Amino acid sequence: xxxxxxxxxGAGNITPAIMDAQLEAEYTTGLKAALAAGASVLRAGGxxxxxxxxxxxxxxxxxxxxxxxxxxxxxxxxxxxDAAIMDGATLAxxxxxxxxxxxxxxxxxxxxxxxxxxxxxxxxxxxxxxxKRGVDMAPDDYFFDRSRYEQWVExxxxxxxxxxxxxxxxxxxxxxNIGHKxxxxxxxxxxMHGNVAAATSTGGMTNKQYGRIGDSPVIGAGTYANxxxxxxxxxxxxxxxxxAVVAYDISCLMEYKGCTLHEACNIVVKDKLVKMEGEGGLxxxxxxxxxxxxxxxxxMYRGMCASDGRELVAxxx
Length: 317
Ligand code: ASP
Description:
Blueprint: E1 4-12, H1 21-43, H2 48-60, E2 81-87, E3 92-99, H3 105-115, E4 120-122, H4 123-133, H5 140-143, H6 146-155, E5 162-163, E6 185-190, E7 196-202, E8 205-206, E9 223-225, E10 231-236, H7 238-244, H8 246-257, H9 261-276, E11 280-285, E12 291-295, E13 299-306, E14 311-316
Parallel strand pairs: 3-4
Antiparallel strand pairs: 1-6, 1-13, 2-3, 2-7, 5-8, 6-7, 9-10, 10-11, 11-12, 13-14
The structure holds aspartic acid (ASP).
């Protein structure tokens, strides 16, 4: 039996102009480590949920990415993180929003899915549940990343928010990204048993206010999985992905309209989102192990590996 694992580390204005050889090497190493962690679970016959938890945890631990360690700063100078996970075999799902000091928000989302009796926990309630479940915590300074702090300092006295991976769009109060770091993270997998799963984890947007929650933890918007169709993890300007209900829309196009995975991803990302001016992308896999990288931005940090030995890491369009 075969498996496929696909990961992303954020989509946006990722071009050779903002990279150099050292950064390319660092991103390559980070993405390959995440692939290796998930692949070892899948190779041993493990399930898709465990594999994507392993991959996303490695990306959360890497400050290159805007998730877990290295999450962006809110208007109040805090790191508030969102994450979700969904099991395509059972349609079980778990999500957390606005959590602080949780070392691996994806693991907390998984705990919510398996042990809370609920799907979506936020803020203090999520923290209380994390304590009860003995989820690993970390102090504020664990999450501190100088480059993201400097991005925030530049705009903290304004009402602008900044998409960590955005470079050139001034609409909707979003200011240009001047840093080199991009990166909500996500993983989707099809395991050897033909089950799919999806997970996404993010710090959201720099200078976000009012307890803003993006698409990443919202089941059906930034994250969705269903064995009948596909597993999807999104990255991009969350407000658009929320309104377009991106991940579930792709599943619906497959389920109700008979689209292939490739067709469904392209309709939503390259037509629907483009018309709304929603920038970003996604990764997707189906229960046959077919996969898609699809983005309407200049690039997306991404990678895949499969049981037949294929492995790929790429950044640019
Ligand atoms: N979609 C995430 C959000 O809006 C950000 C990202 O993908 O970088 O919170």
